[in-house]
Structures are given as structure tokens and as C-alpha cells.
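Reopening this one. Same input as before:
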Amino acid sequence: MLWTCLLFPSLPLDVFARARSPDDAPRAFVVSGGGRYPRVVAADATARASGIRNGVLVSAALALVPELVLRDRDAEAERRALAQLATWALTFTPMACLAPPDAIVAEIGGSLRLFDGLPRLVARLVGGAHALGYTARVGIASTPGAALLLARAGHTQPVTDRALLPAVLAPIPLVHFDLPGAVRATLREAGITTIGQVAALPRDGLARRFGSAIVDGIDHALGRAPDPRACFVPPPHFASRLELPAPAHDAEALSFGVQRLVQELAGWLAARGLGVVRLTLTLAHERHLRQRGMPATVAPFAFGAPARAPARLLGVLRERLVRVTLPASVETIALMSDETAPLPGRNLGLLPGDDVVAMEIPLRDRLRARLGDDALLRLVPHAEHRPELALRTTGVGQASSAPTKQPRGKGRAASAPPLPDAPRPLWLLPEPQPLAHPLATRPWVLRDGPERIESGWWDGNDVRRDYFVAATPAGATMWIYRDHRHGVDDGEWFLHGIFS
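Same output, byte for byte:
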């Protein structure tokens, strides 16, 4: 087996800064911890260039950069981000595991051939994390514990041979090993500062003094004992939120943040083999306005068919955002899936370039995004013999009909009403038109019929008709009928439809 560790060293900062567009003006941005004298936990490149380092007091950082953008560390946001990253990692491997607070380990041995070898797979992992707004550091080894240690130590060279692990891990400082602070301090006082020095100590005495966890951790990292880990399971529904670095005053300013959320949604859909049918984008306004009772702006979206490709998702959302009028500035955006459906993957081709697919957004989705769901209707069959009542109109995103009860004694639900075997025209007139005068002057040729339709006696709109497919003297094909409601053998003729 071959494991990789994706370590996110600036995760406390990335959960806030990932909503910033590269086109935004650079501003010093830091995240601080709690306490009476808060200190800087993470600082971006602009802040570091100004002399701000991790661990300095926030008051000292503000003295260096008065216009510093400051955020309090959000442990819950970091936990959600790690879960979303694990979901995204499942698009590359069937097994990804959380390694809190800032890492993911994944088994990639079975994915190497699919992604054309280890270098390309690692490049896609790092590039994909960057596209989501996170900085990733990679460690690769034959055990998950060793991969985690290598990533923390900044050792980027893969160690695929388990026999080499003792020599490679020996110089790694104990600060990268998961130990209680008191245990690490005791070992440091005794002059034990590296993993190799701990592994050289007598096992029994080490276990009696510090517990079996330290011995088991070394055995797991070196591959001397199995290291079972719980595989991460994506949540059944997608929900993600993104706090903007500064309030957005128009819908166009939300595009970059929406793009981040769409990429997360696409990863979740791919990991679960689904396509989204309906989703909701919620735009929360500034905190002082929410406290006064201003509701969030909610923008629902619907697709004509299950969709998963980021280009299609983002294209429809951008079309819909153009129609959104913001009553106030937006501080937080959230995206949630409302309805999904199974969507199989696409087989890869053998020729170069087969993996590149030109993504086209269906016209139906574009029209719904621009004009609204109520602007588009569709015709669905209805269980009725009278042609003018055999079709119903419904919204594109609505169900075609009410659910049908399952027949007693059968193992499957009843299907939709079947279409008649007799021919039906593509164009049905709103009202039948009398044909007495045209037939009297130049006769039509009857090609098919009669088809007797006699129905509607229970609702007062009864019909008794004989339908024919007829050709006009000019050669057009029509659908006509003779009305026999009054019992007359030679009733009046009507035109009801036109064949294409």
C-alpha cells in the first residue's frame, strides 16, 4: 500500500482568506487565538512581509500594520473545511481518512495507473487543493503514520520501501509526533528530541513510563503493526458556507466565492456518484442588519437534468446571479443541495484529448436561470381519451404527475399512462375548426381511420368522434374527425390537428 498525507499548514487562515480573489488588492490578513493576550496563529504573505510572525501579540501586529485585517480563529470552520477536503479527496481514491486538526491521509496505491503515475497524481492533488483555496503540503510513504510525519517535517521525497522508514524518520523532531505536551517536555529534558532517539529506548520501560500509546505510534509509523483508520464517509447532503473577506455590494462581486463553493459541490457529487437537480444559494447580509431582522437573500436554482460538471454548475449560477437584486451588502454565502439524482461517470477514451470535453450549458437551464422557473413549461401526458385533455402543462422543475399507487400484488409501481397506438399530430389546434365548406368544394383523401373516441359523459363534456388522417388537396396531412354526438350518420367535419 502507498499512502499520501495532505497537510494544510495554513488552514486557520485559509478558511477566511480563500474567498479573496487574486485580483483583490493585497491586504495584511492574520488569524488570532483566544485568551487575555491573543497572539497571531496564522499570517498571510503580506502580513509576513510587514514583519508579523506567528506567535506575536496581536497588539504588536497592529502596531506594525494598523490597517491589519484580523479574524478570530474558528475551530468549527476548520473542522468543516477538513471534512470537505476529505470529500474532495475521495474523487482520487476510495479511501481517505481524517487526521485532525489539519491533515488528511489517503491510500493512493490503487489510483496510480488511473492518474498516470505518482508525479501526476500528486500534482493534481496539490493543484486541486489550491483551486479550492487551500495550501497543501504532501508526504508520501508506505504507512499513513509515516506519511503524516513526512508532511509535517516538510520531507517531500516519497518513501515507498518500508525498510527505509526507520532511517528516514529517525531525524524527524518529536514536535511532529502526536504526543501529550507533558510527555514531550519530559523527553526533551532527558535529551530525547527525535523519533529515532525514542525508537532506540527500551520498549517495556518506555511503555511503563509513558503508556503504550507512544510505542504503538512508533510501530504504526514504521509499519511494524497494523494501523487501521476509519474511512471518511461524505455527508448525505451538501451544505457549505463561505465568509467573505469584505462585504460584497453587488452580485458580480460574489462570483469568485460562488466558484469556490461550486468546486466543493462538484467534488461532493463526484464522491457520491450523484448529479444535482435543485440547489439553493443563501446570501447572508451584514451582522448588524441580521440583528435588526433583515432576512437573507435566497436564490433557488434548478437544472433540467442532473448536473455535476463545475463549468455547467457555475454557468447556471452566474446566469441566475445576474437577476438577483441585493437589498444590502453580503457578508456570508452558503450553498446547499436540495435534490440530487444518480449520475454515472464517463468512460475515458484511448486517444489523446479524449478526456477534454467541451462543456455546453443546455438552453433550457440558461432560460430558467435568466427568466425564472415559471417562464418555462412542458407538456406531459395525462390519462384521458379526449385529445384536448390528454396533455397537461407543468413547470420544468416539477413532477410530471402525482405519484401512482402501487398495484396490489405486483412488485413495482404502475407506470405512466401509455400513448395510443393510433397516429397523433405534432400540432393540436386550441379549438377544432369546422371543415364543411372546404370539403364540399375540393374533397380530401382519407388515409387512415376511423378511430372512434367516445368519452366524457360523466363531466358533461361528452364527445363521440370518428378521427381520420387525411390529405388536403395541396398535399398537407391533417387530423380530422366527424362529430356524431347527435346520432347523425353524416355529422359535421372538424379539423383538430396538423401533422409535421
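So the earlier flakiness isn't reproducible anymore. For the record, Residues 2 and 142 are 5 Å apart (CA to CA).
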